[in-house]
Amino acid sequence: MEAVKFYNSLGRRLETLEPLEPGHVRLYTCGPTVYDRVHIGNLRTFVFEDVLRRTLGFFGYRVTQAMNLTDVEDKIIAAALEAGVDIGAFTAPHVSSFFEDLAALRIERVEHYPRATGHIDEMIAMVEQLLEEGYAYRAGDSVFFRIAADEDYGKLSGIDLDQVRRGERVQSDEYGKEDARDFVLWKGAKEGEPQWASPWGPGRPGWHIECSAMSQRYLGKTFDIHCGGVDNLFPHHENEIAQSESANGSPLARYWLHSEHLTVEGDKMSKSLGNCYTLADLETRGLAARSVRYLLISVHYRQQLDFTFAKVAEADRALKRVDDMRFRLAHQTEQAGDKAPLEEAATGFEGAFVAALADDLNTSAALGAVFRFVHDVNGVIDRGLPFGARERVEGLLQRADQVLAVLDASAWNGDSGAAPDEEPGGLSDAEIERLVQSRSAARAARDFAAADRIRDQLAAAGVVVEDAPGGSRWKRS
RNA sequence: GGCGACGUGGCCAAGUGGUAAGGCGAGGGUCUGCAAAACCCUUAUUCGCCGGUUCGAAUCCGGCCGUCGCCUCCA
């Protein structure tokens, strides 16, 4: 099994992955708060986590992954209240659209999508344990985590709480805290808000306890990898560690991977700038989901990425290069010939691709390897395809695409990309074939006026004819 | 104030000690009846600036300049 290295935020260094159980990786990824449609920034993180998951599978690991859905939280409660529905009814459509977006970007389904509201008992149990062991205390109707009791607090983020700028004032519902830095584990019920019974009276869980309780339920007290966006590193992940490790006396996760944020056209995403694009927004603008995924994986996950429409268009053209090579490959006849050049290219590609992924998920380098291979194969096509070459090349591309999931255009059927301009009653393949053949006949008869008329007709229908040596071929643009 | 990241060709982006991947763009070429498309070739003696370590530095160290992130809403 390939040695895979990751940059571990806990310790801030590159480490070789050694799962607790050989060959099996347990992975927890912080999921969405389902109060709105997820935006392109959220999706970057989910795509990164998908590449991680696929890479582990590529290297032969079995993966058990849990991604939580936060379905009770301040914003949800406020919005549901305003809409006059309960939180379940409010979040349901957002849960659906979330899964639609994942599917649209070819993000694999994971094993578990636990919801906070379905795991209140587990959260209560963990809070009770923290209370018993002195890591938590009651104040009013609420329960807080006692940071002073946790010597390790800050080990993930490296934060020195004495240096932290103090908040201007304590939130009104957090009166009674021993220390302003303590965070809430259980919030006492407020009038009109969703609530659950607990040993401390009715209330609802704090945000951080959710992930601690649910990761333990599905992955165990200690699991292998925990992911999320960098913004969650502090306080969310720090607090998860504090809760879980204080309660269990064992490490929470051994490797912490954080993906960087993206900006949009040079600006930080914000509601006021109106640039918190959802995938639906992008599709409305005619951007293909496939190109969006390509752009998101074209930059290393720990680098900030500036998302621009121009870059999506560039991604489009880059992918076209792959499509064109596969098109040429499919239309070239195989013949007896030297297989060595292709084998050399194949070996180089495999080696570079695997090494790139094993090196902290270097997708930029992996894509670089793909394009070098495309170049090499083009050379092979020019010099004559040896028998078996098509299958060899396609096999390699498919294997790479197990991780990248962008190389095979046919897997993205229904992608909105060029669709908006297309006539609903376009030409069928058979009709196009007939036209192309009559054009070829016209050309053979040197009736170029007629040939050009047919070419124009096809172009109007969105079909490009290419006159290659040995005959004309066509494709929809 | 504390912690951290980044600055590589026109644009984007890999590369963390051994002599600059890849994509887009641009220029040239091949093919073609002409096109288009495609393919091929070319495009950084140099990696923000200054010093240092080293046989050797984009890569390590120090300083400076610039951009950005986090410090309890946030992927």
What would a concise description of this structure say?
The chain contains 14 helices and 17 strands.
Q: What is the spatial order of strands in the main beta sheet?
A: 4-3-9-10
Give the termini distance in whole angstroms: 42 Å
Mean pLDDT: 91
Amount of helix: 40-55%
Share of residues in strands? 15-25%
Can you tell me the overall shape? elongated
What this model shows, in words?
The chain has 477 residues and is α/β, with parallel strands linked by helices. Helices cover 45% and strands 16% of the residues. It has helices spanning 40-58, 74-83, 87-104, 120-132, 207-219, 233-248, 279-284, 289-298, 309-331, 340-358, 363-383, 389-404, 429-444, 448-460, and strands spanning 5-8, 13-16, 24-29, 62-67, 136-139, 142-145, 184-188, 203-205, 223-229, 253-259, 262-264, 267-268, 305-307, 334-335, 385-386, 463-468, 471-476. The strands form 6 sheets. Strands 4-3-9-10 form a 4-stranded parallel sheet, sandwiched between helices. A hairpin with a 2-residue loop joins strand 11 (262-264) and strand 12 (267-268). Helix 4 (120-132) packs across helix 6, helix 8 packs across helix 9 and helix 13 (429-444) packs antiparallel against helix 14 (448-460). The protein is elongated, with a radius of gyration of 27 Å. It binds one RNA strand of 75 nucleotides through helix 1, helix 6, helix 9, helix 11 and helix 14.
Question: What's the helix and strand layout?
Answer:
Elements: E1 5-8, E2 13-16, E3 24-29, H1 40-58, E4 62-67, H2 74-83, H3 87-104, H4 120-132, E5 136-139, E6 142-145, E7 184-188, E8 203-205, H5 207-219, E9 223-229, H6 233-248, E10 253-259, E11 262-264, E12 267-268, H7 279-284, H8 289-298, E13 305-307, H9 309-331, E14 334-335, H10 340-358, H11 363-383, E15 385-386, H12 389-404, H13 429-444, H14 448-460, E16 463-468, E17 471-476
Parallel strand pairs: 3-4, 3-9, 9-10, 11-13, 14-15
Antiparallel strand pairs: 1-2, 5-6, 6-7, 7-8, 11-12, 16-17
The chain binds one RNA strand of 75 nucleotides through helix 1, helix 6, helix 9, helix 11 and helix 14.
